[in-house]
Amino acid sequence: MRLTLLLCAVCCVLVVTAHRYDPDWKSLDARPLPKWFDDAKFGVFVHWGVFSVPAFGSEWFWWYWQGEFDPAYIAFMLKNYPPGFTYAEFAPQFNAQFFQPDEWAELFEASGAKYVVFTTKHHEGFTNWGSPTSWNWNSVDNGPHRDLVGELGSAIRKRSLHYGLYHSLYEWFNPLYLKDKESGFKTQEFVNSKTLPELVDLVKRYKPELIWSDGDWEATDTYWNSTEFLAWLYNDSPVKDVIVVNDRWGSGTACKHGGYYNCADKFTPSTMPNHKWEKCVSVDKLSWGYRRNMKLSDVMDLPSIIKDLVFTVALGGNYLLNVGPTSDGMIPTVFEERLRGIGAWLKVNGEAIYATAPWRVQSENATVPVWYTSKGSTVYAIFHTRPMQYSFQLSTPVTLDSTVVTLLGNSESLKWAPLHSSGLMMVLPVLPCTAAEAWVIKLDGVM
């Protein structure tokens, strides 16, 4: 009886003292980042929408055509479409007729990615689910007539991958947004009737584990009611214990507030940031959405991707690599080849990436340039240049008599000898030829 009463008392205390986050940045920024995100290291980003129909220039097609009036986009429309053609007329051609979510999920799993971030709505405002506040500007009432967000989410979760959702706060030509903008953002009609209801709907309906917010730069977080939404997300939403968010919640919040930092597209710090961060980059170096005018020279090659991934992880970041599907739902072959190539490399060398931490030294240049990651007393030295000789020197690790050195993918221990107070010299086996052109030396029991 006393034990029962004691447990009840403990439960009551836990309920009363359960931490709740206030709708201000000081409180929200103090929330610990769920561990799954830091362990994941590598994710796939997917930009897909009506912009995949013209598939010219970039996913900002509508803006460059009718917002900024870029001559190249205007010329493209004059040459290929009749006078008076509107952007809305592209939507029925966004048919997703070859979209097979299970095939996408298999590819993403094969890439070695641990999470996927899918576009629910880009700045054009078209939603890839049946948003009740989107009129018919959505994928259920228009175009594919399918719930793309839901279908992909189900397939992703069958593969035990984490599912994240990209969402743009603003919409270029939405009259409610333009009305708020004209008021100097003193009114919030767009926020209250469109942005926040859609975010809440996405969370309740699909229960994402990550929200990748964007479109933040024109108005402050106060206009977007960002802190109020995040407080609800962290305190009362169905994903409050697992959700991860980025830092794009209003002008001035990037690299300053949020769960982890994107800072800017393709953010590449020169030194290790003091906060969890993510580098987002696209296989097509010139666009996030699919482009029919993409050239092979515009595409990142596999060694460059692996090098970028390793650099990012060594400096404590996650690597989010984007692909843009075609309007009919196909992931271009060159993107598939890159993703499967990453997966092949990670299948051998993934232990040097997943669930690792930055080491006390992030890089050195002894025999060849090397990047370091670590996991407990194990250190991984990752290099991308094939040495001209079999002897290989590392100057930073401090060895012990019990230190064991191996090359990942090769089960035999390597012969090595210590160098002075730190460092070691080893004899490498013949390095395998791989498309990734990257190898990993594993050092067990070093300091």
UniProtKB/TrEMBL annotation:
| Name of one Pfam family that matches | Alpha_L_fucos
User: What GO terms in the biological process aspect are recorded for it?
Assistant: fucose metabolic process; glycoside catabolic process; lipid metabolic process
Q: What class of enzyme is it?
A: hydrolase
Q: Which residues form a coiled coil?
A: none
Its EC number is: 3.2.1.51
Q: For the Alpha-L-fucosidase C-terminal domain, which residue ranges apply?
A: 362-443
Source taxon at top rank: Eukaryota
In which compartments does the protein localize? Lysosome
Q: Name one GO molecular function term.
A: alpha-L-fucosidase activity
Chemical reaction(s) catalysed: an alpha-L-fucoside + H2O = L-fucose + an alcohol
Keywords of the record? Glycoprotein, Glycosidase, Hydrolase, Lipid metabolism, Lysosome, Signal
Q: Which residues form the signal peptide?
A: 1-18
Q: Where is this site: May be important for catalysis?
A: 280
Gene Ontology annotations for the cellular component aspect, listed alphabetically = lysosome
- Positions of the Glycoside hydrolase family 29 N-terminal domain: 15-351
The main place the protein resides is other
Please describe what this protein does: Alpha-L-fucosidase is responsible for hydrolyzing the alpha-1,6-linked fucose joined to the reducing-end N-acetylglucosamine of the carbohydrate moieties of glycoproteins.
Indicate the family of this protein.
Answer: Belongs to the glycosyl hydrolase 29 family.
Subunit structure, per the record?
Homotetramer.
Q: What's the protein called, per UniProt? A: Alpha-L-fucosidase
Q: To which species is this protein native?
A: Bagarius yarrelli (Goonch)
